[in-house]
């Protein structure tokens, strides 16, 4: 099984995704708020993928991206917020 966590950017918005064997199985969308903040607004995984950790992997990728670009994250999405609440090591990007 080939699993890829990726990022698509489109101007002031974008999304992180999970691709398994070339098929997109999860997506977490965000918008830029200014130049140094992204707002995560929605996370979804395809039916049958609950419990596989895809959502958490996408949040982790977002945190890596934020650290790399020195930007902050506002997790408006309830799922993303719950991951930030559980993983205190991610609080540096909030």
Distance from N terminus to C terminus (CA atoms, Å) equals: 33 Å
Shape: globular
Major sheet: 5 strands, mixed
**Biggest sheet, spatial arrangement of strands:** 1-2-3-4-5
Instruction: Classify the beta-strand content into a percent band.
Output: 35-45%
Number of helices, where a helix is a run of at least 4 consecutive DSSP H or I residues: 2
Number of strands: 5
Radius of gyration from CA coordinates: 13 Å
Uncertain stretches: none
Q: How much helicity do the residues have? A: 25-40%
SS-derived structural category: alpha+beta
Average of the residue pLDDT scores: 97
Secondary-structure element order, N to C: EEEEHEH
Task: Provide a descriptive summary of the structure in words.
The chain is built from 2 helices and 5 strands. The longest helix is centred in the middle third of the chain and has 16 residues, at 54-69. It has a 5-stranded mixed sheet with strand order 1-2-3-4-5. With 94 residues, it is an alpha+beta fold. 24% of the residues are buried. The mean pLDDT is 97. Strand 3 (23-32) and strand 4 form a beta hairpin. The chain is 27% helix and 41% strand.
């Amino acid at each position: 099984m080939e699993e890829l966590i990726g990022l698509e950017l489109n101007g002031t918005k974008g999304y992180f995704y999970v691709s398994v064997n070339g098929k997109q199985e999860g997506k977490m969308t965000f918008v830029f708020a200014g130049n140094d903040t992204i707002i995560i607004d929605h996370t979804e995984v395809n039916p049958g993928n609950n419990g596989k950790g895809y959502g958490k992997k996408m949040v982790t990728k977002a945190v890596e991206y934020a650290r790399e670009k020195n930007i902050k994250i506002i997790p408006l999405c309830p799922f993303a917020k719950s991951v930030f609440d559980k993983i205190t090591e991610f609080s540096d990007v909030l």
